[in-house]
Amino acid sequence: MRPRRFARPEQPPPEPQTRINERIRVPQVRLIDDDGAQVGIKPTNEALEYAYGKNLDLVEVAPQAQPPVVRVMDYGKFRYQEEQKAKLARKHQSNVQVKEIKLRPKIATQDYETKKGHVVRFLNQRAKVKVTIMFRGRETTHPERGRDLLMRLAEDVKEIGAIESPPLLDGRNMVMVLGPTKNAGVSRDAKAEDTPTSEEEIQSDGDRQDPAPPSNEEPSAREEVTEAQA
């Protein structure tokens, strides 16, 4: 019996490594100083001694050039700065979510308010909302009703949502896309910040004690009459 052959998983190609110092083996290079000044075309050994004389590294920054371009720098510090830039870029990168809400042209008022509440919640979560009007039967002969409903919804949530794609008819459906504005989620964050303050006020009010009556309080009128009769 022939032995079974298992396909080896494909390995990703190795990432290109930056050549530094002795790994640069071309005969000559175009040298750039650590302050960005052009030094000129130098033999690689001479460029390497130039970098070592400043207690820095010689880093190949443009290997495809003729001759390759190298720069004098602190490679460890350069790698750290590049990693921090990449980390900051990943931190600020946001994955935009798209939520979808479906409506009917003849939707009841209570159902409309419920659907609008969902749209408000999605926009406050910084998500885009795809609002779809579904037409059935003869409703397709009156697309203006769906458009009016979509524009009414956009007007109701204009403080936190802006129209990114106007109402467009797509077969039996009409679609509009809303995107969050700068005010989306602001009121919710402000409410969350105000909550601890109100709790602290309640707690401080509970810790307060009624002021004690002054010791030199004047006697009431009834007490004065009793003393006079005595």
Mean pLDDT: 80
Radius of gyration: 37 Å
Q: Using the 3D structure, state the CATH architecture of one domain.
A: 2-Layer Sandwich
Broad CATH class of one domain = Alpha Beta
- What is the H-and-E element order? EEHEEHEHEHEEHH
Shape descriptor reads: rod-shaped
CATH topology of one domain: Translation Initiation Factor IF3
**CATH homologous superfamily grouping of one domain:** Translation initiation factor 3 (IF-3), C-terminal domain
Residue runs with pLDDT of under 50 for 5 or more positions: 192-209, 220-230
Helix-and-strand structural type: alpha/beta
Note the gap between the termini: 130 Å
Largest sheet: 4 strands, mixed
Q: Which strand-content bin applies to the residues? A: 15-25%
- What's the total number of strands? 8
Describe this structure in words.
- This protein is of the alpha/beta class and 230 residues long.
- Among the domains are: 21-76, Roll (Ubiquitin-like (UB roll)), CATH 3.10.20; 98-180, 2-Layer Sandwich (Translation Initiation Factor IF3).
- The protein is 39% helix and 23% strand.
- It has helices at residues 44-53, 75-92, 109-124, 143-156, 186-207, 221-229; strands spanning 28-32, 38-43, 57-62, 69-73, 98-103, 128-134, 161-170, 173-180.
- It has a 4-stranded mixed sheet with strand order 2-1-4-3. A 4-stranded mixed sheet has the order 5-6-8-7, with helices on one face.
- It is rod-shaped.
- Residues 192-209 and 220-230 have low confidence and may be disordered.
